[in-house]
Amino acid sequence: MYEPIRTPSVHSPADDADFPHRSREEELDIQLAGHLAALLAVTDELGLGAAGDRIAEQVARLRGAPPARHAALTDAAPAALHRRAHALAGRALVVAASRADTAVAILAAEAMDTHAAALAAPAAPTVLVGAP
């Protein structure tokens, strides 16, 4: 009643493919290094040198080469930079936990705490010169 299938299905796995495959761990390393590199850029822009150095060490460990350090400023408000850094540290923490990388998980959690504290701190009052 039905004609038999003469060609292989497009849904069959391509086990003998000629392109390289990455393991789950390699993919997580790449993703984690990307999150940390973005966090490093924001950290450098905020002028947090010691924290940036610690992040750069972890990026170098994951990538096998030292990262490029952020040199340009975006003129973004410090609060916006702290929010961005907090979000990036959270993403790094999730990937580090999934990959069971304790060193990066601790680093990311500390970064989240630092940026959350910076956001919670009251802003310095604005003093207008010549105001009565």
Q: Would you give an account of this structure?
A:
This protein is mostly helical and 132 residues long. Helix content is 60%, strand content 0%. The chain has four helices and no strands. Helix 2 runs antiparallel to helix 4. The longest helix has 23 residues, at 24-46. The relative contact order is 0.13.
In short:
The chain has 132 residues and is mainly α. 60% of the residues lie in helices and 0% in strands.
Nearest-integer average pLDDT:
86
Radius of gyration: 23 Å
Distance between the termini: 96 Å
Order of helix and strand elements from N to C terminus:
HHHH
- SS strand fraction: under 5%
- Let me know the largest β-sheet: none
Broad structural category: mainly alpha
| Contiguous uncertain segments of 5+ residues | none
Overall 3D form: elongated
Count of beta strands: 0
Count the DSSP helices.
4
In helices, the fraction of residues equals 55-70%
